[in-house]
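Model it.
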Amino acid sequence: MEKSKILVIGATGNLGYDLAEANLKFCHPTFALVGDSAFSDPIKAQELPFSKVRWKMTEAVRLVDVVICSVSARETLHQKLLIRFIKQVGSIKHHFLKLFELLNLFNNLLLINCVPQRFIHLNLDGYNFYAPKVEISRLVEAEGIPYTFISCNFFMRILLPSLAQPGLDAPPRDKVTIFGDGNTKGVFMKESDVAAFTINAVDDPRNVCSLNELVEMWEIKIGKKLETLHVSEVELLQKIKGIIISSSGVNGTQLYPHLKYTTVSEFLHTLV
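Modeled.
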């Protein structure tokens, strides 16, 4: 199968750089769209293994099949313009956006770190952290872009170097603070592992199929033609209005068992 052409927005950021590297590692034709500030930074400019060509965002989006956006949290709402461009182009198969420590995979739009709309029903936004993410999530849904959420939870490079101790730059060797009873579990992922699973999901045929294709596959498996009932878009929206979708998902390690990921123990060993 021909590899999708991928555009990475924010390729000089922490996760963005890993995503760009993973694209190249898995042999995808790769483009990076970065701000002028990245080129003014000598270190960031040297890290980009790309030919430097000036493109407008609309032109860049038209060049590719997949857009991966990994911008900082403070730029969350800037993604509205990008979503509009993708909708106008109409040829993007996937798109990723960075919203918070989750990674969301969209069929036409892949969101990195988006908040599911059901979060709006929970009292989790006392610091106005989730509201912009929910706004972007709702915008994607309103544009009719199908999606799948991929949760990557906590990034190792952010929390583990201090052993989750506020104000420290290295793991403590004498005294440690335990919050609560210390038994609440969290999932930690290395950014490069998140990137690898993401890029493997881009062209995974299991992730890209229409309802008609899904029905056809099932009919082949059971050796029987199903009676078909059609429900209009208006009828469907009326049926699901107000329903909160329950949480569900598939473990990325089950989908891609060939990918070796970094364990917490292995990461901590690098800090010894």
